[in-house]
Each structure stands twice: as C-alpha cells, then as structure tokens.
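tool=predict chain=A
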Amino acid sequence: MAAQDTPPTDEQRTQFRDLIKRLRAESGLSLVRFAEKAVDPVTGTALKYGWIHRLESGEPVKPPQLPELRALAAAARCDLEILQDAAGQQFHGVDPVYSASGEARAFVRKTERLTPQQREQLQAFLDTIVPPAEGE
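tool=predict ok
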C-alpha cells in the first residue's frame, strides 16, 4: 500500500477541517467574510476568525461546541447534523452510523419530528413487518 493510500490515523483525521474548507470555498466567501457570518442564531455566539484560520490551516484547535457548530452551519448554510458528524469524526474518532444509501439517516431525521404517540405507532408498525431480533 502506498503512503498516500494509508488510511488516516485518529491523529490525522481531517473530516471537519476538510468539510469547512470545502463549504467555505463553495460559498465563495473569504475567510474574513465567512467568520463574520459565523454567528450562532440561538445564542449570538460569534466564531473568531483565528479559530477558523487555525482549523483550515491544520493547526490544533479546541473542538467546537454546539453554539460554534450552529454558527458554522449558519455561515456555511448547511445542516447542523452534517457538521456534527464531521466534528465527531475528526475530534472524537466517532464515525456516524447510517446506511450506505442514506435512507436510514433520512428516517431518523423524520422520526425526531414525531410525537411520542406517533413514535409508538411507528414502532408497532415496524415490529409487524420486521420482527425484533433476539435481545431487542
């Protein structure tokens, strides 16, 4: 296996950095302008230019918390969940679990909008077409 084909180690994970760089490039915003737009719509927390610059440059940064992730989502105009997954991968070594087709992820997002009664009904329906595995 060639050196460039070697999968990254936990210390080399760059999923979040790569995503932010790509999203900023796609937005056409300079780093300064992107940082100006990186404000959490819930708390008003603003992300500092220096943190984004260090992240994109591959320098060590403190993992972002929820307000910072929401700020980046606002600046990048992307779903918060996408940033959460990438941050979990890079900073915590947690790879998201979902089907290759992405359908399971779509179902999960929709179920979060259901009432508790609707969730119970959905679970009962699923149990009729796919019986629970042993131990569930």
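The chain has seven helices and no strands. Residues 1-10 have pLDDT under 50 and may be disordered.
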